[in-house]
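Thread: "does anyone have the structure for this chain?"

Original post by V.I.:
We have the sequence but no experimental structure in hand. Need at least a predicted one for the grant figures.
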Amino acid sequence: MRLIAYILLSQFTTGKLLANQPKDWQLGFQSSASKSMSDIVLFHDYMLLPIITAITVFVLFLVIYACIKFRATKNKVASQTSHNTAIEILWTLVPCLILIVMAVPSFKVLYSQDKIPPADVTVKAVGYQWYWGYEYPDENIIFDSYMIEEKDLKANQPRLLSVDNEVVVPVNKNIKVLITANDVLHAWALPSFGVKRDAVPGRINETWFRADRTGTFYGQCSELCGIKHAFMPITVRVVTESEYKEWLIGAKEKFAKDIIDKDNKIVKKVTLKGIR
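Reply from O.Q.:
Generated one for you, tokens below.
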């Protein structure tokens, strides 16, 4: 009973520190932080879940009814019926109609995710075995993002999710993410934003999100990529516009892609791999 109570309590009480990351015994989605994710949750809660529940209950009823109605003790001679045209038409048309009802709103959600609006900030994410590299093409910023070892974690930093260099973006702005990989298949996923895209070597995939609140949000590589697949988390910190501008000033000094001398000449080009 204690275990059941703990599971139920963990589902319906979300602490502030755990709002943007997975929780122990979690069954549902992480808290939404974008319209795209809110649309996904609404579609799941008010379309998929009721339909799936209704189908499950209906099939369970049919199984129980058949077990009782057609049990061997009551039916000494088995039915010789081989087909029923009306029933066959019915059980073909009804599933088709159910799928259409489910497909129409799902297409709307998929389209809104796939149609990328004009970007306010562009970030390039590159998957490596086993960490992420990031670049802000418009800001001359480039850095790698490694998981923080458990022994180095600070207070309130979640295990296996915290990184040394976070992606920082402004709130209520369209963020375009260019995603690729350097070695094997990876996937860049952030549940709170409703984002998941494969990172494919030699190919650039695109996605976007618009965070509607500030905070630190966590994701992980979602494509099996090797022995340390579980150790390449994604951390995105959403800040106000003024905080973002302040971060840019420091990041341009710390993570400059092109190092320029006093004569405005590029004296060194920095690549992603190996930056700490």
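V.I.: this helps a lot. The domain at 121-269 is CATH 2.60.40.420 (Immunoglobulin-like).
O.Q.: and Residues 1-17 have pLDDT under 50 and may be disordered.
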